[in-house]
């Protein structure tokens, strides 16, 4: 992902839109600096001076005060630190940016091809929202709202009057978020790790807020694979590693096999090319092309996941045809799903569902 900066022509400090756009720049810089607020603010000051969105009326110190007042950052003896509220806001922004067009049938929808009862109806109700099933409509409560809002003489039922019953969903899912941190994610000046973090943060926010009963684990894979705490997501950085996709899938599978329940899945974020495997304690690597030995071992692990009923959904951050073909083969073998995207346009995906043999573009 590349950023081109020009002279600031946006709204001015007295406009709230100005503050929103500055916050957007700051949060993007925060992702690129691995959560280092001080470094992000140094870049903010540099760009603000160079491109003119800071001046004597509103400078970097004023912006820092806004961060403190909004609870997104705090001053500490070690400098500015991102607060939990700030981290949550970045996750939410990532979710809004990436998945606003993926609400129907997107990852995390616990939809199955099997008909049956989706959850237990509760006595509590809430206002109707677009997309709610009419089978959950509270008819008596909706009519009562219409009477209170419009009067009994001219009874009119509008969308704002509708109430639906809350339901307690009985299904749960165990998810492992698998993130590629190999050198190819930043090779030749191509920043793929920042889009990867955005997707990871968005998925984490989606699962934590929409499906709080689910479990979520995070695994990074380079030369080897390692499990990391969820709170470390924003600090993810690519390193001088090869891509041991097989090790990542193996660790993710072992984690999921220890989880209770029948719904288990892997969300893998990668640029697609496996270049290493670990055998007999040694790293066998080949960064040139697609080594058949590495590819076959990786595909074997995808097939093992399928036998264990673990679905792999891949977010592919590359457009190279050989890499895409490999990921498509892995996904077809696993009967999984794939989102293909260009890192420079992270909101646009080609979604391939190898379960229902569908392909569509979502933006």
What does the model show?
36% of the residues lie in helices and 23% in strands. With 363 residues, the protein is α/β, with parallel strands linked by helices. It has three domains: 1-82, no CATH class; 119-169, no CATH class; 174-362, Rossmann fold (3-Layer(aba) Sandwich), CATH 3.40.50.410. Strands 7-6-5-8-11-12-13-14 form an eight-stranded mixed beta sheet, sandwiched between helices. A two-stranded antiparallel sheet has the order 1-2. A two-stranded antiparallel ribbon has the order 3-4. Strand 13 and strand 14 form a beta hairpin. Helix 1 (16-32) crosses helix 2, helix 7 runs parallel beside helix 8 (292-307) and helix 8 runs parallel beside helix 9 (321-334). It starts with 15 loop residues before the first helix and ends with a strand. Residues 101-118 and 350-363 have low confidence and may be disordered.
Summarize the structure.
This protein is an alpha/beta fold and 363 residues long.
Key terms for this structure?
363 residues; Rossmann fold; 8-stranded mixed sheet; 9 helices
* Major sheet description: 8 strands, mixed
User: How large a portion of the residues is in β-strands, by DSSP E?
Assistant: 15-25%
Would you tell me which CATH topology of the largest domain applies? Rossmann fold
Based on the coordinates given, report the CATH architecture of the largest domain.
Answer: 3-Layer(aba) Sandwich
How many domain modules? Answer: 3
CATH superfamily of the largest domain: von Willebrand factor, type A domain
Topology:
Blueprint lengths: L15 H17 L4 H15 L8 H10 L3 E4 L2 E4 L1 H16 L19 E9 L11 H12 L12 E7 L4 E7 L12 H18 L4 E7 L3 E4 L16 H13 L6 E7 L5 E4 L2 E4 L6 H16 L2 E7 L4 H14 L2 E6 L2 E9 L4 E5 L1
Parallel strand pairs: 5-6, 5-8, 8-11, 11-12
Antiparallel strand pairs: 1-2, 3-4, 6-7, 9-10, 12-13, 13-14
Helix pairs in contact: 1-2, 4-6, 7-8, 8-9
């Amino acid at each position: 992902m590349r950023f081109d900066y020009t002279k600031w022509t946006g709204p001015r400090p007295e406009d709230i839109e100005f503050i929103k756009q500055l916050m957007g720049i700051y949060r993007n810089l925060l992702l690129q600096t691995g959560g280092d607020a001080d470094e992000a603010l140094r870049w903010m000051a540099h760009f603000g001076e160079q491109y003119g969105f800071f001046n004597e009326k509103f400078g970097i110190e004023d912006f820092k005060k806004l961060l403190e007042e909004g609870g997104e950052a705090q001053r500490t003896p070690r400098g500015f630190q991102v607060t939990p509220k700030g981290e949550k806001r970045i996750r939410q922004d990532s979710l809004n940016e990436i998945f606003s067009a993926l609400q129907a049938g997107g990852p995390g929808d616990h939809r199955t091809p099997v008909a049956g009862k989706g959850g237990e109806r509760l006595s509590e109700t809430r206002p109707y929202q677009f997309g709610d099933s009419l089978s959950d409509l509270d008819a008596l409560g909706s009519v009562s709202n219409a009477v209170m809002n419009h009067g009994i003489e001219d009874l009119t039922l509008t969308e704002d009057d509708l109430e639906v019953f809350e339901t307690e969903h009985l299904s749960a899912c165990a998810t492992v978020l698998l993130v590629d941190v190999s050198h190819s994610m930043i090779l030749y000046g191509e920043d793929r790790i920042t889009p990867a973090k955005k997707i990871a943060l968005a998925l984490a926010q989606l699962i934590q807020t929409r499906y709080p009963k689910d479990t979520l684990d995070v695994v990074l894979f380079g030369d080897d694979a390692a499990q990391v705490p969820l709170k470390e997501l924003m600090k993810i950085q690519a390193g001088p590693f090869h891509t041991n996709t097989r090790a990542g899938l193996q660790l993710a599978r072992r984690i999921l096999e220890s989880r209770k329940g029948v719904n288990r899945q892997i969300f893998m974020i990668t640029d697609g090319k496996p270049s290493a495997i670990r055998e007999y304690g040694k790293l066998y690597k080949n960064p040139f092309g697609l080594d058949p030995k590495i590819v076959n071992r990786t595909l074997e692990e995808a097939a093992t996941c399928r036998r264990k009923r673990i679905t792999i959904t891949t977010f592919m951050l590359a457009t190279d045809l050989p890499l895409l073909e490999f990921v498509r083969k892995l996904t077809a073998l696993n009967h999984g799903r794939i989102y293909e995207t260009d890192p420079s346009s992270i909101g646009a995906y080609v979604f391939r569902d190898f379960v229902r043999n569908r392909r569509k573009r979502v933006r």
